[in-house]
Amino acid sequence: MNNDIDKILYSSADIQAEVKRLGQQLAADYQGKNPLVICILKGAILFMADIVRNMDIPLEMDFMDISSYGAGTISTGEVRILKDLDSSVKDRDVLIVEDIVDTGRTLKALSDLLKQREANSIKICTLLDKPERRVEGVDVDYVGFQIPDEFVVGYGMDYAGHYRNLPYVGILKREVYENN
After folding, report:
1. Long-range contacts of residues 85-89, Cβ cutoff 8 Å, at least 24 apart
2. Quick one: pLDDT at residue 79?
3. Rounded Cα distance, 140 and 107, in Å
4. Which residues in the chain show pLDDT less than 70?
5. How many domains does the chain have?
6. pTM exceeds 0.90, yes or no
7. Which contiguous run of DSSP H or E holds residue 82?
8. Range of the domain at 72
9. pLDDT at 69
10. Does residue 42 have a cis bond before it (omega within 30 degrees)?
11. Is 56 a catalytic residue?
12. Active-site residue, selected from the candidate residues 50, 93, 102, 158
């Protein structure tokens, strides 16, 4: 797997330092609120696990699988819910944890849905923000790193189901996904 990486953007140590900073900021911002922290599967699972371990406040967790990518590298524009929440968001302070925000389509659709379900507040926390690709106006409240328009994998993010278990975030070599 490591041979398929063109360049490491963020090491495991870089990520853990940023996760600690974000977790402490989130804990302060959500003090006394018992937020519902929603992990967007599958890419954000490692990030969310590390974030909540750095939030020393009461919170609840739930999981949602929502996608606009399928197995490709470019958003299809069609947002689909593959697994919905088990919890109600009505009157809850919701924190959406995402691995990467690029076009904003998925998070715009999800935010609109949670508003319809009467969430008290909705905030977004992402490890990576790729503003160059944004096509939907989405406010990202907490950002770990801003990245260039490159296809990244590792720390939960994949290409065709692979590379999620890399402990760092790296740029995938173009020949890996252009030849498939």
Report:
1. 85/38, 86/62, 87/36, 87/60, 87/62, 88/117, 89/36, 89/114, 89/117, 89/118, 89/119
2. 76
3. 9
4. 68-77, 180
5. 1
6. yes
7. strand 80-83
8. 5-178
9. 56
10. yes
11. no
12. 102
